Amino acid sequence: MRKKVRLRDSDVDHIIESFKQYFGKDDHLWLFGSRVDLEKRGGDIDLYVETYLSQSEAVSKKMNFRGDLWRRIGEQKIDVVVNVLESDFELLIYESAKEEGVMLI
Question: Which among 55, 69, 76, 78 has most CB atoms closer than 10 A?
C-alpha cells in the first residue's frame, strides 16, 4: 500500500514509470517537500534521486526525466535533486529528502 501524498495516484504512477525509463534498477526515488504534507496546499513537485550513473549521465537523464514528466502530467514546477552515489559530493538536502520524504521506488 502506498503512503498518501498530495498528488493524484495517476501522477505518482507516471512519475515512477518515467523514473524507470531514465534511471537504473538499483537507483531510488523519493517525493519530498510540501507534497508529502497533507495539511499544505499547492507547491511544486520535489523529487530526490539516488543513482549509480556517472555525473554526466545523471545530468542528461535528469533533464530527460523532467521533460518526460511535463509530457505525462503537464508543465508545472518540478524540482529534481540528483545524488550521484559514486561522488564524494554531499548536500544536506540529500539526507532531509530521505528522512522527510516518501520513497516511491
Answer: 69
